[in-house]
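2024-03-11 09:14:02 INFO receiving multi-entity request
2024-03-11 09:14:02 INFO entity count = two
2024-03-11 09:14:03 INFO echoing inputs for audit
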Amino acid sequence: MATARVNPPRRGRPGYDLESLLAVAVKVFNERGYEATSMEDLSRGLGITKSAIYYHVASKDELLRLAVARALDGLFEAADEAGAMEGRAIDKLEHLVRRSVHVLVDRLPFVTLLLRVRGNTKVERQALARRREFDHLVSELVRQAEAEGDVRPDVDPAVASRLVFGLVNSLIEWYRPRGGMGADALAEAVCKIAFDGLRQDATGT
Amino acid sequence: MATARVNPPRRGRPGYDLESLLAVAVKVFNERGYEATSMEDLSRGLGITKSAIYYHVASKDELLRLAVARALDGLFEAADEAGAMEGRAIDKLEHLVRRSVHVLVDRLPFVTLLLRVRGNTKVERQALARRREFDHLVSELVRQAEAEGDVRPDVDPAVASRLVFGLVNSLIEWYRPRGGMGADALAEAVCKIAFDGLRQDATGT
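2024-03-11 09:21:47 INFO inference complete, emitting structure
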């Protein structure tokens, strides 16, 4: 979040700091769609004036940029961590999948917003470009793991990486942290299915 | 599509029949969101008057009902087919996954619309109820396959079925029939990853 303005709130100004403003904005964006949401809607939803919002951010676009950065930064930190590991690509890949599930759980509304971005504005197109960059890192890892003989050679690495991250990303559709399983158990289940499949090994066909 | 009106178009009325009206409406719903689309928007998008639309359907809701039925009917036909098979639950499940990928490919815009339904109207809530019914059929198959010893016992059947169908459903985010791989190859790749995992068996850990 290097680019967030972190000015302390002015004395006497009640209500939101940037962090809670962002949390509420992302919630509204996810409910109504980013495009369908106006600064007017946000101001009503937050119960504060538009100028109180503009005190923190220059535009709706900036809210979006900060929100998707929260998701993307988490995913790229996970990728950096995986990339810095010693050893086989398959283990890096599994680490990346596991960490990505944690990012998704910890930053669920932000990742949800990121995954729904369509590309109608510059900020959205930049987010899509960073997503493609991330996808590229993943498919490179799959390719490398296949070259090392650890990934099945009968599925194209680009397709395999889309399927595995499709599985991870589909969590936003049903996973809810409250009352649901914990992040560790969820990440474990995702890795089991993605890497070893649903089928019991003994009966593998 | 038992409930679609199949009146032949009136003589002299140019333009859309119900089928092509539905195809265009679903495209517009997917682009703008169902709620954000008015009959006015559809009329402009189609280049026909609202009364020409009302000749075919009573309301925007009816368009949605017909569209999501197209997706749901396909999925339930696949489930019926799987249910009618002789043999082990794991094979029924694999058949269902494979056929569902075909439904998704053949009816991509309809399935995309179905998967984005939120539940704000009666038609949407009915669609969600049928989706839950489908999910229940899937998790029952997983449960049965686990009881037969064919599914790994260390992932909860409800979670496993969500993950496997999350993988299937995530195809709407990236798969495009034109220029992409064929439906058979896609279904094969999905089944390989979902049932046997990305990892090469020999190195299974």
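2024-03-11 09:21:48 INFO post-check: The radius of gyration of chain A is 20 Å.
2024-03-11 09:21:48 INFO post-check: Residues 9-13 of chain A have pLDDT under 50 and may be disordered.
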